[in-house]
């Protein structure tokens, strides 16, 4: 990824199914908050939201090692979002089940889910083991704080305004006192909220060029929702899996 050489480049990174399009959308809308809200109407789909910044912007699931040279040699900004290990797996299974049912007309069998869970715990993934993925960015954020911001989904859900301001500060577009006093932060959060985006017609009926329905990308990921989906055996295994890799890093998943 040698193209990430400008100071205005922005990358939004997350492990597969750590979160929806929310993180990709928030900074884009926020740094272009001069665009009238009327421009984000019924035809607004974050998948197609055009870049207005001077530098390149992209969202990816890639591991840090895939473009580490580019990051080290540039001042591009990286926003990384991780999520609780258990909720991440549940979200991944919901997404895969949607694809399976859509393409093959069948629901995932119990043995398929068990196999997927075993692979997840062992780190079998197109983008590398989840623990490695998160840990690499976590450690990089501590040595490159001006360029890398490590975010947690749970903290964003608890204090979205505070976390969004952290993003804007990193990107060089801090909110002014007047903007905050006039409700600018709350308005952007409303525009980018799950309820608002998922209820837009384009996101309920539209499709990507691949044929995948836009609604596949919208699932309300409640913090702690894993308690309704995982067995005690799964919970115990996931509780112990991160300890083997994270060690003394201080990171808790």
Automatic annotation (TrEMBL):
The keyword Transferase applies. One of its GO terms (molecular function) is sulfotransferase activity. Residues 57-249 form the Sulfotransferase domain. The keyword Coiled coil does not apply. It comes from the Eukaryota. Belongs to the sulfotransferase 1 family. This is Sulfotransferase.
